[in-house]
Write a structure and sequence with these properties.
With about 400 residues, this protein is α+β, with helices and mostly antiparallel strands. The chain has 11 helices and 7 strands. It folds into 3 domains: about 100 residues, Butyryl-Coa Dehydrogenase, subunit A, domain 1 (Orthogonal Bundle); about 80 residues, Butyryl-CoA Dehydrogenase, subunit A, domain 2, CATH 2.40.110; about 160 residues, Butyryl-CoA Dehydrogenase, subunit A, domain 3, CATH 1.20.140.
């Protein structure tokens, strides 16, 4: 039976316990691409995937700050497992923003029972990432059908429900919630990225899939008012990258202490006592600590904005805080995961260690959207007072 977590503290404690367990075979799962089905079942049974369900519906309704820490802990253990729930929690927010009372009642009960959301968002053939070709085609009885192809569908292979972004007949963005076994829906495990190898971020094919009208949520309404929805989604991504950075730092440090040799000119008996190694490792530690601090601050900014949903200034500050956290997490994950090799030496590149997975995971996950635009928005606000756009990705 699925457990129901009651408090923020219980959520973090549960995540820490599972993270320690998941970390033990993370390198093996990456090396042999063993999909984490059993681990995701444990996540569901633990109640962690229902922690953002509102208290009014029996959930813990944890703070954004707590959710960020949960994702960071899981990602430090295995960043594929940390990333898979990103879209799950994203679509819980979609329901909170614009779901009907009946939709919320139904899906919150599903979440508390351990059901999982996947995603079918991105499309390869459109002009850019914010454009969609998939459309809801209206039927005489008021329902719809969906036809199209979605890519990078992280979590869909493991999901009970697969929400799909599609345009309605008025070209407005909607989210259609489909059961994984809907007629005409096929999930293809064709993800072959160099990193995040076990997210199963493959293809979802939609061939005249029937969609009842009561499974469609008007997502476009989110962006017609002050919102932190976009910041929330980016915040979880930042937590994944921050977890990767911490994992690379800690695993790299362990290898420096255990297998690295000092440089002959240093006079040190151990690599971990070599002054230049200590200095460089301190710089890497600073990057990780900065990312963790900015992540925590971003979670607090989202929580503050949620307390005053009509306050445009608080919504803008949440977006800026998340933008900073995302940019710093990008830098920390890529830099630390790369530079620890030089501190360990040639032994670090042997395949059996699996140290390279942290860089591959960081390089893959940080490509979701460009860091250069995070810096652009930060600079434009600091210099010209221009708030980030309400486009769902800032």
């Amino acid at each position: 039976m699925t457990h129901v977590i009651a408090t923020d503290a219980e959520a973090i404690e549960t995540a820490a316990h599972l993270a320690a367990k998941f970390a033990r075979e993370a390198a093996l799962r990456d090396a042999e691409r063993i999909l984490p089905r059993a681990e995701l079942d444990e996540l569901s049974e633990s109640g962690l995937l229902a922690i953002t369900v509102p208290r009014s519906h029996g959930g813990a309704e944890v703070s954004a700050r707590t959710l960020g820490e949960v994702i960071r802990l899981l990602s430090a253990a295995d960043s594929s497992i940390g990333q898979i729930p990103q879209n799950h929690f994203f679509f819980v927010e979609v329901l909170k923003e614009n779901g009907t009372p009946e939709q919320r009642d139904f899906f919150y009960a599903e979440l508390l029972a351990g059901r999982r959301f996947g995603n079918a968002l991105a499309e390869k053939g459109t002009q850019h990432a914010l454009a969609f070709a998939t459309r809801l085609q209206p039927q005489p009885d008021g329902s719809y059908v969906l036809t199209g192809t979605k890519n990078y569908s992280t979590g869909a292979l493991f999901a009970d429900w697969i929400p799909v972004f599609a345009l309605d007949p008025e070209d407005r963005l909607t989210a259609a919630f489909l059961p994984h076994d809907a007629p005409g829906l096929t999930v293809v495990d064709d993800w072959d990225g160099i990193g995040q190898r076990t997210t199963a971020s493959g293809t979802v094919r939609l061939e005249h899939v029937p969609v009842p009208a009561d499974r469609v949520v008007p997502h476009h309404l989110t962006f017609e008012r002050p919102e932190v929805f976009g910041a929330f989604g980016q915040y979880i991504h930042a937590a994944v990258d921050t977890g990767i950075a911490r994992a690379a730092l800690e695993e790299g440090g362990e290898l420096i202490r255990t297998i690295a040799r000092p440089w002959g000119e240093s006079g040190a008996d151990r690599a971990s006592d070599e002054p230049l190694v200590i200095q460089k490792f301190g710089e890497l530690s600073l990057l990780v600590r900065s990312a963790e601090a900015l992540l925590d601050r971003a979670g607090g900014a989202i929580d503050a904005a949620r307390e005053a949903p009509a306050d445009e200034d608080l919504a803008a500050e949440a977006s800026l805080a998340v933008t900073a956290a995302r940019a710093q997490a990008d830098t920390a994950a890529l830099t630390v995961a790369s530079d620890v090799f030089a501190l360990i030496g040639t032994r670090s590149v042997t395949g059996g260690l699996g140290l390279d997975r942290h860089w591959r995971n960081a390089r893959t996950h940080t490509l979701h959207d460009p860091r250069r635009w995070k810096i652009q928005h930060l600079g434009n606000h600091a210099l010209n007072g221009v708030n980030p756009p309400a486009n769902g990705i800032v």
